[in-house]
Amino acid sequence: MALAQKLLVDIHTHVYLPRYAALLRARSAVPRILSAPAGERLLILDHEPSGGRPVGPQYWDREEKIGFMDRHGIDVSVVSSANPWLDFLQPDDAQRLATELNDDLEAYCAQSPSLSGGMKRLYGFGLLPLVPGVPIPALLESVDQISKLPHLKGVILGTRGIGAGLDDPSLSPLWGALSSANLVAFLHPHYGVGDAWGPRDNGHVLPLALGFPFETTAAATRLILSGALDAHPTLKILLAHAGGALPQLSSRLASCIDHDPVVASRLAHDARWYLGKLHFDAVAYGPEELGFVSDVVARSAQFGDKKTAGFGYTVDRKLGSRNMLFGTDHPFFPPLSNTDKWRSVVENLQAIDAVSGWGDAEKDGVRGGNALALFGLA
């Protein structure tokens, strides 16, 4: 086994557990898995081009996941159920299935191989029954269940909460429970930002490349503006896809808040300060993008005092790397040839290696050391 700080840890990798896949096969409306002459296809959004995407064992088979990891040198993966989670279910069904799928995911991880030091190859993010009509006590029961499953280290969250977004005041007990249980909340998009793509058919490109990150940007900003990070200072939030556009727009956001006294009064700090309290996956595909996120995170501490925010700050890119973690988005975006490695692995690792200003310690941290610390695996 490699030294702990040298492990490659994938924190953004998905699974459709067999129980969940069976549910999707039984459905006649999106989301669903349907049979086709060339094999099964997955539809998770309305009006998907080309009749959805082909799916196979790599979406639910643990041995396929381990084989992918072995092929690409990934030591440990923190696996999450893929979108749309339980959003389409009625409250009672969502509560029941969340409990069952959390138990399934615990078994999926617990029965995975171990590294020589005893660490498992697989850990997981549990599911909450986040659908309209589910009472808050039911969410807290799910948090309690997940906290007692030893191989589940967090929860995966969509952006809609129980229907009114993550800034819904009724969710405050949830943030407190996650914080107390030391569980990481992985914020992941599903819906995009509406129909803004024009009449031309551009396939999945605009909804996935732009819509998903913009959805994350809006949801994370609403969470910040709600004051949740002030009320629950130890809450651990991980943002998918390098935080979307939030790092790029954080200074503009801060200026707009400053000019809106009602909103400004809700926050204890300059808006840029909160980016240092967030964690970001490194699924960005380019060193310039990763370096920029690292810069924004590194400077965030200098905005804690609203009176001096924006004056004389400096940036040490190495400090910002501590909040960034490698991911692959497997099993989505497979290689175009059976002999190719997955570009989501190769390009994201190359990007980490090429970030100017990061030394070996920072790169090793992003590849795995930061994840081991965040999830308490070190």
TrEMBL record:
One Gene Ontology cellular component term attached to this UniProt record is: cytosol
Q: Which domain of life is it from?
A: Eukaryota
State any GO BP term from the record.
Answer: secondary metabolic process
Q: Which residues form the Amidohydrolase-related domain?
A: 9-377
Lyase keyword on record = yes
List the keywords (alphabetical): Decarboxylase, Hydrolase, Lyase
Q: What is this protein called?
A: Amidohydrolase 2
Q: Name one GO molecular function term.
A: hydrolase activity
The taxonomic lineage of its organism, from the top, reads:
Eukaryota, Fungi, Dikarya, Basidiomycota, Agaricomycotina
Q: Return the similarity comment.
A: Belongs to the metallo-dependent hydrolases superfamily.
Organism for this UniProt entry: Mycena indigotica
